[in-house]
Amino acid sequence: MENEKLYFVIRKDNWPNGRVKYNIMKEKPFELSEATRMLLAYEQLNDDKDHTYHLLPLEEFLSNDKNTVIMANGSHNIDTI
Predict the structure, then answer these.
(1) Where are the beta strands (DSSP E) in 1-81?
(2) Tens digits of per-residue pLDDT, 42-63?
(3) How far from 17 is each of 14, 21, 23, 39, 61, CA to CA, in Å?
(4) Is the pTM of this model over 0.70?
């Protein structure tokens, strides 16, 4: 289970003027089963159709404990310049 993908639960707010705003509901990501439970709970409590909830997968380079640098050529590895 250690390599299981992590997800953020996000809220999408649709404003009357056509703008869209996204909010991360919790500051840490969760495994799929826990994130799905949270998503369903938020949807059950939600009575406003302008707010919807979604799962956003955590990208691998964001969860890496090492310092990540993206080079100008798009590479994450300085050896590929």
Answers:
(1) 6-14, 20-24, 30-31, 51-57
(2) 999 988 888 999 999 988 655 5
(3) 8, 12, 18, 26, 35
(4) no
Distance between CA atoms of residues 32 and 6, nearest Å: 6
d(CA 38, CA 9) in angstroms, rounded, equals 7
Tokens 């994450």 belong to 76
Tokens of 24: 């991360």
| Domain extent listing, the chain | 6-80
Residue that has been written with the tokens 């798009």 in this structure:
74
Q: What is the mean pLDDT of the chain?
A: 82
- Decide: 76 and 61 in contact? Cβ < 8 Å: yes
CB-based burial label for 47 (10 Å; 0-12, 13-18, 19+) = exposed
Asked whether 54 and 10 are in contact (CB, 8 A), the reply is yes
